[in-house]
Amino acid sequence: MTMDVRAVLEFATVTRGLSLFLQAVLNAAIPDHEADAFRPPRTEEPLYLDSAVEWLLGGLSHWDAEHFLFIAERGYLYEHNFAFFPLYPVVLRGLAETLLWPLSCWLSVRGRLLVAVALGNSALFLLSVVALHALSRIVLQDRRLALLSSLLYCITPANVFMTAGYSESLFAALTFGGLFLLEKGFTFRACLALSIATAARSNGLVNIGFLLYLPSLHAISQIRVYRTTTKGHIKVFHYIWAIIRLLLTSLLGTAIIALPFCAFQYYGYRTFCTPSVSLERIHPALLSLAERKGYRVPDENGPPPLWCMRPLPLLYSHIQDVYWDVGFLRYFELKQIPNFILALPMATLGIMAAYAYFQANSELCLRLGLWE
User: Fold this and answer.
1) Quick one: a GO biological-process term for this protein (predicted)?
2) Longest Cα pair distance anywhere in the chain, in angstroms?
3) pLDDT digits (tens, 9 = 90+) for 168-196
């Protein structure tokens, strides 16, 4: 382990401990905001240490983090649960049933899941820091910048999401690791890592862009070399082979990365469009919550939802449209002005950084960095 990696790990460990300490203190000192968020009822009896763990780590389960805990404990029951992809709940449940199983006499499943959030996210964050540092060393080709970027990542304003029960730390570790493998030329292994990242978050599909870019860069570089080193029919053969290899790599890699997303959408379709569950098998408290809040649950005796009749029945798109009101320009409303003001400092810094880079490397940007 190099000195830089050790320094990054030590700093990341300190920031994780500080984040957990602050969330415990602030969770105890500041009353929760009574938002209309997902609050499923508890259906199991609390054990000896549950109240203490809830007091210490309850802040890790606020807002959408409650969905991950519910899925890890109960599985996918409500329609809008399918907005949250399955890898992170599987990791939490795996930790709760293996590493934390000796605590089952003192902690319920939920209590062990909260501990799994604290331990799992801290470990995953450390992995993501190491992966980011390794990636930065390759891309930036500057030891000091790689170290600085990794340290700044540890104090990102999004720190709360890296610590709480969200899938950000898991997704970051897999994405940085996959991009590192892609930069090193291990394309298939990179696609596997990025595919697993898609099983953690839907925006893992964006990583397909990196897969398309780097092989394109490599193919163009090869073609430019062939243009000056080969002649005649051999040159044409090399051109065709470079293009065919690029197309095969892009198609196969895209299929691998997108596979978890497609499989999960198929699972959602089977759950609600061809259900095999009756309402009698659902806990009465959870069914009562669904009736009060208007949550849809699978029912083999009920009619299928309307989105099942669409030409492309994607449950994720339906959730974004109906539950989150996501659509073109829908967010631009007067009531969202406070959120725009809140985001303005970071947006301004990002725009200034992009503009400064373009000013310094305008020709490279106009060529998208694909050729000299």
Assistant:
1) GPI anchor biosynthetic process
2) 80
3) 999 999 999 999 999 998 999 999 999 99
